[in-house]
Amino acid sequence: MQIQPFGVEQWMNHYETRCRLNLAETCCDSITVAELLDITGVGRGYLDELLAMKLTYGEIEGSERLRTAIASLYDDQALTNTLVTHGTIGANHLVYLSLISAGDHVVSVVPSYQQHTAIPESIGATVTQVPLREERGWILDLDELAAAITPGTKLVTLTNPNNPTGALLGREELAAIAAMCDVVGAWLLADEVYRGIDQYGRGTTASAADLYERGISTASMSKAFSLAGLRLGWIVGPASLLKDIVIHRDYNTISVGMIDDALAALALENAEAILGRNRELVRRNLETLSTWVDGEDRISWTRPSGGTITLLRYEAEMSSRGFCVGLVEGVGSVMLTPGSALGMEGHVRIGYANAPEALVAGLPLISSYMDGLG
User: Fold this and answer.
1) Helix, strand or coil for residue 334?
2) What is the pLDDT of residues 295-354, one digit of tens each?
3) What's the number of CA atoms in the CB half-sphere (13 Å) around residue 327?
4) Start-end of H helices in the chain
5) From CA 51, how far away is CA 231, in angstroms rounded?
6) Domain map of the chain by residue range?
7) Taking the domain 7-32+273-373, which CATH number applies?
8) How far is residue 319's CA from residue 328's CA, in Å, rounded to a whole number?
9) Order of strands, edge to edge, in the sheet holding 309-314?
10) What letter does residue 206 receive in the DSSP assignment?
11) pTM over 0.90
């Protein structure tokens, strides 16, 4: 099976351990095990439970404790509607392997995480891309999406909040998309890895799995929960679908690590404490970023509504990769993600959920770098 190189991941793999200030980071500022124990209130005594843990295979589909905690993040889901995976990346891959065959039709809202076009294409599906447009403020044109969905469409897929623009689909828009899918019997896959840290209100928008009988939601501990090191994600959807997915999962997962499972369960049982910390972080940091953009006449954007990342349009006569290489290999060693890795040339992607001091230090260095470009 041939598949396109993963542009974003190759860029991150090359530079993220070599830069001084990583403003390409997509996760909320990561926490230590000690911080997790403090935030959740269990204290260091919880370590005794881990010390006594026998490191055998865990429960194959994820522990009941963890799956119950995952279900609690949704309005209308139960333990039987959840399946634990190796990150959202593993969750998405399993959905495509289970649902899509050669010749199927997939509709993908782009820009997006590259999985959502490259994997179905590698399987032999026809992928119709429906673009978010900068002139619309990255807001999805529902009429354009409806026109792309045909009687033969098998799956519609999107990221919400959107990666990389930070645009957000609310309950009404998601319900409208679900209705379009229902007309033709299509599945709806929503990659919701950034869900829970929106810029407005309670910070958590509706989930596709709660709004549609063929809705599938994927997410993980990485972005909104500051625990990417656990490498743990999940699929939420109809129990009948999960039974089919388990067949594929047996070939590449068996179980996740028992310590990962236990720490993820602890975190999700205290989800509001972690999400509260991270909502405050992304909202404060976005104000810092917004102030910088307002004062930087060579940068323009559409302010994001959710997630941890957004696109910046820059004014310089050079490719986005050239712009980012010069920045990360220069004196300041500041890392952004080139838009070319996302199919969005002329832009760079910036993360604003890292430690506040990194953003404060890095933004002036980007300005200084652009000064040197002339």
Assistant:
1) strand
2) 999 999 999 999 999 999 999 999 999 999 999 999 899 999 999 999 999 999 999 999
3) 31
4) 7-15, 33-40, 46-51, 64-71, 87-99, 115-123, 142-148, 171-184, 208-211, 239-249, 258-269, 271-294, 320-328, 356-373
5) 20
6) 7-32+273-373, 43-270
7) 3.90.1150.10
8) 14
9) 299-300, 309-314, 347-351, 337-338
10) -
11) yes
